[in-house]
């Protein structure tokens, strides 16, 4: 495992091109297994999680070639339906191979998925939705075996949670089910929308994109296609937090859709953080005067996350660090994952004024002068938050387990250096 060394404090300035959406790339790679024709993906991020999914595709017989962020996948022959357990355990999205490989081979065995340890992440909604379509499952020896005993048939279903990966898994299966499938209380995050758009380019008939109800009219066969992934809105928000917290500036250029940043802008407004937003471009000026805007009646505001279009859980960690550099007091309420807040202990050790109320809530009062610290990245988003904290802190910070961050952030070191951060990878 590699370490990142950061000499702070920094003041960011520069233009970067965000990578493709990580959470769209992973299900799209799995969905490419549905066709025996060639699929070409553009702006697929160069990150460890995408590499893991592409390796899984290769393991079962798909041809995969990469040139930078352009990737060609040709699953002409799926030769293996038993996916390597160790590789599955390295990434949560591996479970998404279950439905497409089952559809191609009649059954699939997938090792129970791994990924970030940010709390319990149920698979029940996956099993419920696939079972409604005609794919059964059986758990045994640390793996789940999916099996199709009869032709897939559309179904009207209601998810008990708006699970992103469950919605994606069911979409992947439903596009080839006979009849109509309706997924109610579905996840509608930008990455789920992109998966649906990708499937439609392959010949699927999905409507209700950008809503919580998807209607899928099954088709007999999907074909190859060419698709470009949008910029990762979580990465963009991370660097916006960094620029705001350090008093610097930043610009983004790329495949950026403004509608995916409306809630981010609304929440950032509570911190008096402002940025300009247009198609293909986002900019934040230097010298933001960070100050918490009190709620009506002079009440301390609360920042909480939730299913889209609410504020994303993946943005919470970096915004918490930005709050340490903001004048005023704010309560963060992490509703989705009970272990997301554990990294705040590192911030307290760095000098942050924080009170951890319970596993879901933390109060931050700022601004605080942070000091350098040697620490370890616990998960992708908390790891990036620690990078952000190190850019605010005085002195030499060391962040161990840096590969955890590289799972989700493309060319991180180059982007930090482009923004003027003294960062080194060892």
Description:
The chain starts with a strand and ends with a strand. The strands form 6 sheets. Strands 21-22-1-23 form a 4-stranded mixed β-sheet. A 4-stranded mixed β-sheet has the order 2-14-16-15, covered by helices on one side. Helix 1 (22-31) packs parallel to helix 7 (190-201) and helix 8 (233-246) packs parallel to helix 12 (380-392). It folds into 2 domains: 4-19 and 231-425, Enolpyruvate transferase domain (UDP-n-acetylglucosamine1-carboxyvinyl-transferase, Chain), CATH 3.65.10.10; 22-228, Alpha-beta prism (UDP-n-acetylglucosamine1-carboxyvinyl-transferase, Chain). With 426 residues, the chain is an alpha+beta fold. The chain contains 14 helices and 23 strands.
What topology does this entry show?
Elements (H helix, E strand, L loop, with lengths): L3 E5 L6 E2 L5 H10 L6 E5 L5 H12 L3 E5 L2 E5 L10 H4 L9 H8 L1 E5 L12 H10 L1 E6 L2 E6 L7 E3 L5 H11 L5 E5 L5 H12 L3 E3 L5 E5 L7 E4 L4 H14 L3 E4 L8 H8 L6 E3 L2 E4 L17 E3 L11 H9 L3 E6 L10 H6 L3 E6 L2 E6 L7 E3 L3 H13 L2 E6 L2 H4 L5 H7 L3 E4 L1
Parallel strand pairs: 2-14, 3-13, 9-10, 17-18, 21-22
Antiparallel strand pairs: 1-22, 1-23, 3-5, 4-5, 6-8, 7-8, 10-12, 11-12, 14-16, 15-16, 18-20, 19-20
How would you summarize what this structure contains?
With 426 residues, the protein is an alpha+beta fold. It is built from 14 helices and 23 strands.
């Amino acid at each position: 495992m590699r370490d990142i060394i950061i000499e702070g404090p920094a003041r960011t300035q520069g233009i970067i091109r965000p990578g493709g959406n990580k959470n769209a790339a992973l299900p799209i790679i799995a969905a490419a297994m549905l066709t025996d024709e060639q699929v070409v993906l553009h702006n697929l991020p160069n990150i460890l999680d995408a590499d893991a999914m592409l390796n899984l595709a290769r393991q079962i017989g798909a041809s995969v070639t990469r040139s930078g962020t352009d990737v060609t996948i040709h699953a002409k022959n799926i030769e293996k339906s038993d996916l390597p357990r160790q590789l599955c355990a390295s990434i949560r999205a591996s479970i998404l191979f279950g439905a497409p490989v089952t559809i191609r081979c009649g059954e699939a065995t997938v090792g129970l998925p791994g990924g970030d340890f940010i709390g319990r992440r149920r698979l029940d909604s996956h099993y419920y939705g696939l079972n409604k379509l005609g794919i059964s499952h059986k758990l045994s020896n640390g793996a789940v075996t999916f099996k199709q005993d009869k032709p897939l048939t559309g179904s009207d279903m209601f998810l008990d949670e708006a699970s992103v990966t469950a919605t994606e898994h069911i979409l992947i299966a439903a596009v080839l089910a006979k009849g109509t499938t309706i997924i109610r209380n579905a996840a509608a995050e930008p990455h789920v929308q992109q998966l649906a758009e990708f499937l439609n380019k392959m010949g699927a008939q999905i409507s209700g994109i950008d809503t919580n109800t998807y209607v899928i009219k099954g088709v007999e066969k999907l074909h190859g296609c060419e698709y470009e992934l949008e910029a990762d809105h979580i990465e963009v928000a991370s660097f916006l937090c960094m620029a705001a917290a350090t008093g610097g500036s930043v610009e983004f250029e790329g495949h950026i859709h403004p509608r995916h940043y409306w809630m981010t802008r609304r929440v950032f407004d509570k911190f008096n953080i402002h940025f300009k937003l247009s198609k293909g471009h986002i900019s934040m000026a230097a010298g933001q005067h960070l100050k918490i805007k009190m709620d009506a009646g002079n009440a301390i505001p609360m920042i909480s996350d939730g299913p889209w279009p609410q504020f994303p859980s993946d943005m919470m960690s970096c915004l918490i660090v930005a709050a340490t550099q903001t004048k005023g007091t704010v309560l963060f309420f992490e509703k989705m994952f009970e272990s997301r807040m554990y990294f705040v202990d590192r911030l307290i050790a760095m000098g942050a004024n924080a009170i951890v109320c319970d596993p879901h809530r933390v109060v931050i009062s700022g601004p605080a002068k942070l000091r350098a610290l040697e620490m370890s990245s616990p998960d992708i988003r908390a790891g990036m938050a620690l990078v952000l904290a190190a850019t605010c802190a005085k002195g030499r910070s060391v962040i161990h387990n840096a590969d955890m961050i590289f799972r989700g952030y493309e060319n991180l070191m180059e982007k930090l250096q482009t923004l003027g951060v003294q960062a080194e990878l060892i």
